[in-house]
Amino acid sequence: MVLADLGRKISSALKSLNSATTISKEVLDGLLKEIATALIEADVNIRQVLQLRENVKSAISFDDQVAGLNKQRMIQMAVFRELLKLVDPGVPEYKPAKGKANVIMFVGLQGSGKTTTCTKLAYYYMKRNWKTCLVCADTFRAGAYDQIKQNATKAKIPFYGSYTESDPVVIASDGVETFKREGFEIIIVDTSGRHKQEDSLFEEMLQVSNAVKPDNVIFVMDASIGQACEAQAKAFKQKVDVGSVIVTKLDGHAKGGGALSAVASTKSPIVFIGTGEHIDDFEPFKAEPFIRKLLGLGDIAGLIDKVNELKLDDNEELVEKLKHGKFTLRDMYEQFQNILKMGPFSQIMQMIPGI
What we know:
This protein is 52% helix and 11% strand. The protein is of the alpha/beta class. It folds into three domains: 3-87, Four Helix Bundle (Hemerythrin (Met), subunit A); 102-294, P-loop containing nucleotide triphosphate hydrolases (Rossmann fold, 3-Layer(aba) Sandwich), CATH 3.40.50; 300-350, no CATH class. It is flat and about 70 Å long. Component of the signal recognition particle (SRP) complex, a ribonucleoprotein complex that mediates the cotranslational targeting of secretory and membrane proteins to the endoplasmic reticulum (ER).
């Protein structure tokens, strides 16, 4: 069951409250049983699920109800708050600063989608008018530099790497220094991964980290491993100063709920989530909008932010044309291009309540 199915099951259970003639302890127990089953199917840790049930029960008092208080609303808000706690560690995330070089180093196991995610993050910031670039310091995996080169060229992002140099520390330090001299603001360094946690992997990460002195270390996590994310996140945090986590492959795995809740329990802020293979299948992770979208409640604030990014108010020329009743095919084409800049249409639709 993917996360979308989890959202449908929980929202369906909550909607059943509206058809209930009376809200009793038995009705609440039935609702919580449905929600607990859905969360366990999404691989959320059973201890966390049991704690959620107890917290919701303790938040609802049937013996001492204020007259006129909407019990359905109370239960829905209690469930919403507890779901929020599952995925929100309450730790502030790193914010890059404009006008200076922000070095971001990526770490993670091989196969987690680390190299693709590097390009996605660079593209995300490039669309928001940051001067971004990529450095390929992965000399362990054959074809890593070719992959960065292909992705970066397609997205029109400057990149640095080498076919001849085998020392990742040399490549990383040279690439970062080159881009710093050229005034780049977001410098993303991709490092080697392994099939499992090894001393050689951690030693190499430490050497690269000491050489480039990153402002933020991002750990890329594969959602398909579910609750095992917690052990991995803790292992990496003990070895390198992991500041943020990106969870990938959330679009088609039943263990996505387990991955998100497991990482949150390590107090690591999840900053982005990968929801597909395309460069636009990538979105900032903010716990409250995420839970709202999961439950079909929409994210109006996020939608407004996306529209504001287009800076439509600055298009005075189009406004003047419309005032005089002129609207050409070229104008229509430009508006379609603006809509495409907002990202995949499916993501936009999820931000509208009820869709």
